[in-house]
Amino acid sequence: MLESFNSIPLFNNLEPDQIALLRTLFENYTCPAETIIFKQGAPAVHLYLLLKGSVLIQYKPYDGPPITITRLSAGDVFGWSAVIGSPHYTSSIVSATDVRAIRIRGTDLRDLVNKHPETGQIILDQLAQVVSSRWKNSHSEVQSILKDRLKSEV
């Protein structure tokens, strides 16, 4: 899966040396359908980029059963709580089909942003665009959240 790194839209606008730097930070992730990839409240560790398959974002209110918020498919990103430094995931992710993805530790991505600001800015812009597509008119809000959280760690 990492061999197709150059064709992933999230990495458009990156130079070959920037892609090489990122490639070392990502790992492959696969799972069969109906796998709980992470639970709401679990430590927020990885950001996932879905390459194949689909997943469900589920939220469990304290007084009711889990609610499916949305379905994500290839090209979508999930687990962004790990990027902004939240201690826990705010929802659960369950695979609806077999899944192929790549993932990166949020701490590794935050370190990259601090050590390589130009590359980090491109990734943050792309990430904000992918994540905000789930919510109308929220690109700038998501981008602001990401930047504020990452700057507070410097």
Helix-strand blueprint:
Elements: H1 16-23, E1 26-31, E2 36-38, E3 46-52, E4 54-59, E5 67-73, E6 77-78, H2 81-84, E7 92-95, E8 99-105, H3 106-115, H4 117-132, H5 139-151
Antiparallel strand pairs: 1-8, 2-7, 3-6, 3-8, 4-5, 4-7
- Separation, N- and C-terminal Cα atoms: 32 Å
Counting H and I runs of at least 4 residues, what is the number of helices?
5
Which radius of gyration do the C-alpha atoms yield? Answer: 15 Å
Strand-residue proportion: 25-35%
- Identify the overall geometry: globular
In terms of quaternary structure, what is this? single chain
Number of domains: 1
Overall pLDDT confidence: 84
Query: Which regions are unreliable across 5 or more consecutive residues at pLDDT < 50?
Result: none
CATH domain class name: Mainly Beta
Spatial arrangement of strands, main beta sheet: 1-8-3-6
The percentage helix is: 25-40%
Please outline the major beta sheet: 4 strands, antiparallel
Structural class estimated from helices and strands: alpha+beta
Looking at CATH, which topology would you report?
Answer: Jelly Rolls
CATH superfamily: Jelly Rolls
Listing every helix as H and every strand as E from the N terminus to the C terminus, the arrangement reads: HEEEEEEHEEHHH
Architecture, according to CATH?
Sandwich
